[in-house]
């Protein structure tokens, strides 16, 4: 017997049923029996069993004897029933079965294990029938699930799906399919006919061609159109056309072509058809058919204001051709209350029709984006068809519909009508789906009972931590607990110390040591072990754990059979972006856990992996630094109202451009600030969606629109990028401490000649990791003012293309240059420029501090730079800085400008307003500049408690340390001498400490590394003098140095130069020498 869809479905029904009914016509002749009956009878004769290892019962029912009346009893017994309706009686049975199907569906909801699947074979080869699905569609309201299939493979798959649904859910299923289709006629009402093939015909042909699993050859497909039809059935005429030996193409069904009101709608509502392109007419005709007299085409060719035909693009787009036009569909989808569809007439006619009908029914604004690619009016429809197919197939123009009303009904609002979508749309859907899952995972409590997000998360994390800790302690039966850590930057050590304190507080005798500090021969004597290990380098153990791991990983003499252990690893899953490098994530912790298990250890708890990227991972922190999450929307709106932005505030882009803040000091200062604004705008990411999203009343969470980035591209930079512009003789921006620097060069008349360009600066490093180091920028060449932006762009692009994307700790520009050399970098930049850079010109820096007090600038305007310690604007006993600035702001008509050294300038004060400002400054003691030179040249980062990376205090502690150093300064007679001192809470270098003459870099709470020998105006790096010093140690080391400096310094010698000359530290000019002590 030939394998057909009916035979395959019968076999599956036999395998998944207890009882099978085959409905046959009322005839006893064996020749009239269906394929299903013959196949199933043969199976029973061979005693084949089903998936339950039983032989199903087979019974034949006759179509005229009300066959469905017998199903109720068997179904109530919990039987798994299959009903097969062959093609020779399907039409007569289905309509009569409707009353029984209602009863079966209702009773099936309360049955115990029973299920029923009905397979209906529709035979369209008999052209005496119309061959549609009218009878099956009449069953839709019965409560049965309907499944349809075409072809042998799909019928087999859907039969399996039908039985799976019935078995697992108890829902009754009707599976209907065509045994074979030989001829298909596509009739369409298209007037007038402009192409050989109608859009619907192309859709049908494409659908058949995409099915690669037909059991027989593809059906013959013909196309035609409706003509003027007379009253009466049209079946006979259709069947005659299909039965003809020679199939007719483009036939007309009826008498002559149909006249339609849409024949003359080229210009809409009776206007001249020639006014619109022939390629646009299908869209216009469809719009007219759906919307009729409500249709208004604002930019029709017949409209008097159709100026877009002459100038279709704005001057803004013409000036920046690389910046693509925004995808209005993605913007609209962000608002949540707009129907959006993307269609293409020459790809899917039916999809356009569906989209327009849904748009017309949607209660709210609708946007339908239609794709019509052509270069000129002479392009043929075949050309447009090819271009459209290419755009849809490769995802450039996805076909989709977005209906927010479906979301309210609990359905998926996004319907994809093509196979591929572009990345931006996929990202939007990923974010939407992620947010949906987050929302669903939260209990729906009353707002009156719900606390803030911060308190809720804090409570949840505290509960989880307590539970995990109690589980750990539950495994300890009395013997001491030994906690061993491996840590380079202090995170693992800090966690181990906290675990020790918590254990001691709960009565456990706990010790805490670095792995290398514990005698390896005594390790097997310990009964309870906890290992906390961070990840270094390429998945390596930290420095203070490597000897321990080397011994444990190679020896076979150690047995942990009497020990119980727990391992917690600390790592960063995003540190290695390549998929093949994923093995390095938390590799030490994984290796240690596996080795201890191999050596016989008993695990206290499963291996724990702390991921620095995981929002729900180890010790998630929500930083509240003046911005409450519940006020975030209003905060962002306030930022926008103030004409500020958060663009590029973080991320692997150009973060900022820093220059002297006061443009009114001189004409050169004004030119430099104008240049700073231009290069900042030029290197900013080309996205502006956040403005529209935040400024309107309604918004969905997250920004979905990703504009094309002509500079950064889809991968952006390997790491952050920073720019500084200095104006000699003042280096207040520390120009050498940034990735890219510009040193303004002017002539004797104060005219700007150009800039010396520096590259490769950067302050960040990691404690105990000598592969990381701070660096000073090197002179690349000279740039004329008109070349400066282009040179900056090319420098950044070289970093984009050659920077290290494998190791983020080695990804800054300084490492890119050091891995090669400066000459290579210059050649690469010049090759992109197309010309050679001029050699650098002479310049001279004298200091890197702010110019305090009153200064007169251009236009006879005054500027006052006030000292604000570490940039903290607060009211404290004896100092009312915040109140004073508030009062000044009420009367000040000029500017408030922040300096690179964290101080404040009252700028642009007129001669007549100066006395009033001076009075207010005196009243609030803001004019007090009688500080020591050490304090006036001090600076710190914010550190604890608001910086999550801080290891020690900085901003809150530096004033205290300076006050104690001032006692020594006064004793030595150095009160007026300017000495730069800077402090940071971690080695990342935010306060630019590595160019200071004295620097304290936090290593642990109350502990700092002391660096000496930086250049007074930022021209030289300092060097590590001593590690891990407490306050008394710092004072003890600096006191004799300052005393000797007061007595033995040369005329005009700076403190940083003195400590080098006296041999306290070596001079460090290049970052590679930073760790060379």
TrEMBL record:
It comes from Funneliformis mosseae. It catalyses: hydrogen sulfide + 3 NADP(+) + 3 H2O = sulfite + 3 NADPH + 4 H(+). Residues 481-632 form the Flavodoxin-like domain. This is assimilatory sulfite reductase (NADPH). Pathway: Sulfur metabolism; hydrogen sulfide biosynthesis; hydrogen sulfide from sulfite (NADPH route): step 1/1. Its cofactor is [4Fe-4S] cluster; siroheme. It is an enzyme of class 1 (oxidoreductase). Gene3D superfamilies: 3.40.50.360, 3.40.50.970, Sulfite Reductase Hemoprotein, domain 1. Its EC number is 1.8.1.2. Keywords: 4Fe-4S, Heme, Iron, Iron-sulfur, Metal-binding, NADP, Oxidoreductase. GO terms for cellular component: sulfite reductase complex (NADPH). One of its GO terms (biological process) is sulfate assimilation. PROSITE patterns: FLAVODOXIN_LIKE.
């Amino acid at each position: 017997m030939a394998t057909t869809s009916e035979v395959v479905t019968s076999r599956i029904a036999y395998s998944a049923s207890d009882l099978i009914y085959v409905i046959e016509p009322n005839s006893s002749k064996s020749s009239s029996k269906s394929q299903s009956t013959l196949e199933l009878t043969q199976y029973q004769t061979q005693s084949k069993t089903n998936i339950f290892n039983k032989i199903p019962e087979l019974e034949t029912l006759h179509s005229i004897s009300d066959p469905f009346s017998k199903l109720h009893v068997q179904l109530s017994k919990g039987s798994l029933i299959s009903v097969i309706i062959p093609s020779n009686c399907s039409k007569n049975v289905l309509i009569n079965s409707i009353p029984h199907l209602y009863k079966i569906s209702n009773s099936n909801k309360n049955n115990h294990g029973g299920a029923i699947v009905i397979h209906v074979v529709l035979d369209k080869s008999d052209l005496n029938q119309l061959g549609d699905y009218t009878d099956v569609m009449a069953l839709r309201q019965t409560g049965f699930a309907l499944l349809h299939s075409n072809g042998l493979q799909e019928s087999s798959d859907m039969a399996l799906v039908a039985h799976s649904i019935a078995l697992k859910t108890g829902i009754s299923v009707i599976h209907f399919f065509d045994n074979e289709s030989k001829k298909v006629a596509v009739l369409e009402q298209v007037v007038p006919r402009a192409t050989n093939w109608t859009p619907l015909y192309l859709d049908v042909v494409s659908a058949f061609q995409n099915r690669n699993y037909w059991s027989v050859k593809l059906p013959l497909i013909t196309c035609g159109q409706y003509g003027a039809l007379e009253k009466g059935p049209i079946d006979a005429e259709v069947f005659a056309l299909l039965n003809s030996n020679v199939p007719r193409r483009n036939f007309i069904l009826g008498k002559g072509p149909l006249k339609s009101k849409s024949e003359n709608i080229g210009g809409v509502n009776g206007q001249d058809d020639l006014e619109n392109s022939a390629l646009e007419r299908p869209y216009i005709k469809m719009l007219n058919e759906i919307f009729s007299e409500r249709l208004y085409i604002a930019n029709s060719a017949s409209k008097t204001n159709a100026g877009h035909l002459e100038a279709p693009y704005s001057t803004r787009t013409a000036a920046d051709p690389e910046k693509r036009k925004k995808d209005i569909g993605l913007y609209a989808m962000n608002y949540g209350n707009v129907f959006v569809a993307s269609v293409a007439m020459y790809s899917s006619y039916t999809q356009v029709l569906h989209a327009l009908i849904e748009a017309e029914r949607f209660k709210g604004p609708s946007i339908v984006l239609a794709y019509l690619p052509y270069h000129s009016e002479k392009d043929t429809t075949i050309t447009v068809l090819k271009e459209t197919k290419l755009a849809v197939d490769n995802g450039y123009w996805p076909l989709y519909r977005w209906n927010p009303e479906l979301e309210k009904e609990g359905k998926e609002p996004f319907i994809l009508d093509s196979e591929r979508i572009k990345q931006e749309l996929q990202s939007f859907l990923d974010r939407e789906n992620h947010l949906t899952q987050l929302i669903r995972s939260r209990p729906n409590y009353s707002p009156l009972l719900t606390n803030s997000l911060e308190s809720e998360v804090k409570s949840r994390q505290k509960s989880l931590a307590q539970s995990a800790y109690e589980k750990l302690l539950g495994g300890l039966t009395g013997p001491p607990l030994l906690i061993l850590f491996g840590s380079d930057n202090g995170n693992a050590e800090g966690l181990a110390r906290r675990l020790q304190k918590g254990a001691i507080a709960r009565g456990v005798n706990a010790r805490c040591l670095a792995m290398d500090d514990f005698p390896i021969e005594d390790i097997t004597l310990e009964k309870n072990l906890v290992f906390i290990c961070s990840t270094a380098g390429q998945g390596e153990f930290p420095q203070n754990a490597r000897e321990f791991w080397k011994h444990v990983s190679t020896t076979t003499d150690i047995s942990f059979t009497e020990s119980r252990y727990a391992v917690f690893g600390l790592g960063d899953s995003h540190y290695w972006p390549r998929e093949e490098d994923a093995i390095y994530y938390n590799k030490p912790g994984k290796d240690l856990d596996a080795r201890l298990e191999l050596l016989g250890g008993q695990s206290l708890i499963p291996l724990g992996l702390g991921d620095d990227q995981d929002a729900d991972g180890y010790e998630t922190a929500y930083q509240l630094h003046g911005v409450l999450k519940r006020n975030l929307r209003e905060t962002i709106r306030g930022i926008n109202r103030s004409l500020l932005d958060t663009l590029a505030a973080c991320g692997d882009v150009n973060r900022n451009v820093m220059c002297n803040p006061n443009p009114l000091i001189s004409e050169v200062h004004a030119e430099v600030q104008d240049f700073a604004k231009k290069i900042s705008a030029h290197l900013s990411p080309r996205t502006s969606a956040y403005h529209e999203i935040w400024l309107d009343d309604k918004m969905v969470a997250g920004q979905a629109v990703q504009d094309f980035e002509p500079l950064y591209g889809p991968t952006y930079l390997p790491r952050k990028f920073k720019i500084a512009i200095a104006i000699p003789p003042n280096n207040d921006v520390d120009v050498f401490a940034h990735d890219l620097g510009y040193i303004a060069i002017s002539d004797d008349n104060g005219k700007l000649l150009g800039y010396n360009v520096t590259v490769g600066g950067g302050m960040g490093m990691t404690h105990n990791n000598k592969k990381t180091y701070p660096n000073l920028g090197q002179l690349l060449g000279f740039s004329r003012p008109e070349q400066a932006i282009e040179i900056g762009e090319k420098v950044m692009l070289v970093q984009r293309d050659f920077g290290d994307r494998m190791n983020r700790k080695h990804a800054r520009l300084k490492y890119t240059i050091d891995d090669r050399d400066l000459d290579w970098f210059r050649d690469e930049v010049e090759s992109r420029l197309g010309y050679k850079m001029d050699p650098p010109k002479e310049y001279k820096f004298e200091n890197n501090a702010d110019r305090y007090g009153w200064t007169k600038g251009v236009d006879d305007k005054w500027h006052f730079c006030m000292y604000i310690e570490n940039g903290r604007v607060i009211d404290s006993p004896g100092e009312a800085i915040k109140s004073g600035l508030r009062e000044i702001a009420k009367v000040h008509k000029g500017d408030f400008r922040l300096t690179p050294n964290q101080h404040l300038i009252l700028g642009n004060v007129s001669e007549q307003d100066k006395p009033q400002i001076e009075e207010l400054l005196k009243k609030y003691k803001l004019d007090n500049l009688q500080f020591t030179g050490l304090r006036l040249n001090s600076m710190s980062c914010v550190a604890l408690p608001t910086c999550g990376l801080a290891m020690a205090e900085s901003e809150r502690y530096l004033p205290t340390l300076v006050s104690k150093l001032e006692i020594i300064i006064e004793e030595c007679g150095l009160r007026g001498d300017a000495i730069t001192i800077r402090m940071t809470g971690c080695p990342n270098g935010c306060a630019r400490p590595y160019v200071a003459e004295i620097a304290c870099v936090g290593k642990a709470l109350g502990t700092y590394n002391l660096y000496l020998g930086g250049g007074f105006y930022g021209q030289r790096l300092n060097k590590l003098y001593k590690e891990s010093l407490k306050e008394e140690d710092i004072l003890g080391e600096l006191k004799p140095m300052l005393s000797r400096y007061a007595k033995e310094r040369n005329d005009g010698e700076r403190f940083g130069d003195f400590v080098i000359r006296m041999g306290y530290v070596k001079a460090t000019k290049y970052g590679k020498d930073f760790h060379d002590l």
